[in-house]
Specification:
Length: 112
């Protein structure tokens, strides 16, 4: 859990807007390889793990969710400071079955 949060924070701190936006590869990687595992960890804990997530772990997942969403949006040249819960992301993923579409709907980019 700590690793997910740390990776997200580092990715956000090192992210820069693309020189010629959009850079869909950056956005795709942030959604698929970053946000996806964060949401998957939450879903596993809520649907089958015997382990209950502590408030500290939930806070870490919340930060990681928003860090990855910020990196995703930055791939499209949009600087944002999202405030989305990991639960909101998980519920939307259940509806869309697509982590990239989920990131797009939560950030409003690239279309919004």
């Amino acid at each position: 859990m700590e690793r997910l949060s740390t990776e997200a924070r580092r990715a956000r701190e090192s992210a820069n807007p693309p020189s010629d936006p959009p850079d869909a590869d950056v956005a795709l990687e942030a959604a698929r390889d970053g946000l996806g595992p964060v949401v998957a960890r939450y879903v596993r804990a809520r649907t089958g793990d015997q382990e209950r997530l502590s408030s500290g772990q939930m806070d870490g997942l919340h930060r990681a969710t928003n860090d990855w969403l910020a990196v995703y949006a930055l791939g499209y040249g949009v600087e944002t400071d999202p405030d989305v819960t990991v639960r909101e992301a998980a519920e939307l993923l259940v509806e869309t079955h697509d982590i990239v579409a989920t990131a797009g709907l939560l950030t409003g980019v690239p279309d919004g």
